[in-house]
Amino acid sequence: MKKFHYQDAIKFCWERMKENFWFFFGSLMTIGLVSWISEDVDKLSENNPSFDLTILSILLLMLMLILDLGMMNISLKIHDKKEVTYTDLFNLYPRILKYFLTNLLYFLIVFGGLLLFIVPGIIWAIKFQFCSYLIADKNLGPIEALKESSRLTRDAKMDLFFFGFIVFIVVLAGALCLVIGLFFAIPTVMVAYAYVFRKLQENKIEIIKEPESKK
């Protein structure tokens, strides 16, 4: 299997981030605003429980899931050098249930692995880490996304482990730069994951295609 090079990934994604910095900045500010409102609503709901606040909390959670999925979609499009607009943050909303269920399964698998002396949890976290990208990219179902992520990461787990360590260093460096650095680090890391995802797809024969009838 051809290997991806960490330096190439970071360099390529740094350049893509610089070209789209203000787009990423606006997107991150949008996500930050929704997150801030969601936290305030949750606090109000804890102190003064009400049906209206509970519904609002659920709606804000759904919006956060849509935005998370949208950022993956944007990262893939920017990596692929396709045109992006702010509507890309929201236009995958029909896949929100798949995204939620996939991430729930991913969490349960990793959590179960961590209970088994930690190491299995780390291995499974690496093995299934691209399941969410497969929702954004291929519109797969939860089980299919987990299986395809397992196939893509086969024979690449050690490379992905070290890549994850490099990503941690990049984000840490961004946080240490008076937090402002995160506006550079987070987009770079997001495009870097899209880069690795595409490289893994290139190294494998794709056997799963997005159904034409789905959006």
How does this model look, in words?
The protein has one domain (6-202). It has 215 residues and is mostly helical. It is built from nine helices and no strands. It has helices at residues 6-19, 21-47, 51-79, 96-115, 119-127, 131-138, 142-153, 157-176, 182-203. Helix 4 runs antiparallel to helix 5 and helix 8 (157-176) packs antiparallel against helix 9 (182-203). The longest helix has 29 residues, at 51-79.
Q: What is the topology?
A:
Blueprint: H1 6-19, H2 21-47, H3 51-79, H4 96-115, H5 119-127, H6 131-138, H7 142-153, H8 157-176, H9 182-203
Give me the Rg, rounded: 18 Å
Distance between the termini: 32 Å
Count up the domains.
1
- Number of H/I helices: 9
Can you give the helix content as a percent range? Answer: over 70%
Structural class: mainly alpha
Oligomer: single chain
Strand segment tally: 0
Reported for the largest beta sheet, the result is:
none
Spans where pLDDT lies below 50 across 5 or more residues: 205-215
Secondary-structure element series: HHHHHHHHH
Features:
mainly alpha; globular; single chain; 9 helices
Short précis:
75% of the residues lie in helices and 0% in strands. The protein is mainly alpha-helical and 215 residues long.
